[in-house]
Design goal:
Blueprint lengths: L1 H38 L9 E7 L12 E12 L3 E5 L20 H14 L5 E4 L5 E8 L1 E6 L15 E5 L1 E7 L6 E4 L1 E4 L27
Parallel strand pairs: 1-10
Antiparallel strand pairs: 1-5, 2-3, 2-4, 2-6, 6-7, 8-9
Length: about 220
């Protein structure tokens, strides 16, 4: 009798364990399916235009009005098994990876610096916008692509250093912003950027040493 009861218990445990594992697999499969659905990016509207709003402010969020910013379009968007970026003239010799899977945030300063070098070597001028009284400079009606934003030293606001160049992409994707059906990451065309703005550090002149004392000898 004990053997039969043990066998029944073993069978019940196997059924119970199998039910738990089955439920667990269904649960995790559902989670992975949901994650896979939300990681897909919405296809951009290649005919759309976008904007870049740059807020110039200090670390304590004080607006820094005055000065100018320049925007250079260095790459365009094209459709090929989805969408991709590719450099446009005169930036076609740049070697930095801007494929869809590239980590553009991780190489933002490198790409921007290389684009600045090409712009300076070719004496190129970008689209220039004046920073308003609210500290905001806005570039509107922009075609899709990658843009390099820079500020020349002579275009910085009085008392402040020029910001470091940086890049932005139109469109861009925020994992927290999904399409209405929740199945894809939404393409966004209006970019807000807040670069680091710092005051010019005063240049301290070295102190001049006092002239050496002269010993006066009086003759008798």
């Amino acid at each position: 009798m004990k053997t039969i009861r043990n066998r029944k218990r073993t069978k019940i445990m196997r059924v119970f364990t199998g039910a738990i594992l089955g439920a667990t697999l269904v649960l995790f499969t559902g989670v992975f399916t949901a994650l896979a659905a939300t990681t897909a990016k919405e296809e951009p509207d290649l005919e759309a235009t976008g904007s870049i709003s740059v807020t110039m402010q200090t670390a304590d969020k004080t607006a820094v009005p005055g000065g100018k910013l320049e925007a250079f379009r260095i790459a365009e968007v094209y459709a090929e098994n989805g969408f991709k970026f590719r450099y446009i003239a005169p930036f076609t010799d740049m070697k930095d990876d801007i494929s869809e899977k590239a980590n553009l945030d991780g190489q933002n300063s490198t790409i921007a610096g290389n684009a600045v070098t090409i712009a300076d070597n070719g004496s190129l001028s970008g689209t220039s916008v004046t920073v308003g009284d609210d500290g905001v400079a806005k570039f509107s009606g922009l075609a899709l692509g990658i843009y390099m934003i820079r500020q020349r030293d002579e275009d910085a606001a009085d008392g402040y250093a020029a910001i470091s160049p940086f890049i932005v992409t139109i469109p861009y994707y925020d994992k927290a912003v999904l399409t209405e059906d929740g199945g894809m990451i939404k393409a966004q065309y209006d970019v807000d950027a807040t670069p680091k703005v710092e005051a010019v550090k005063p240049v301290l002149e070295p102190c001049k040493a006092d002239p050496p004392a002269r010993k006066i000898v009086e003759s008798t």
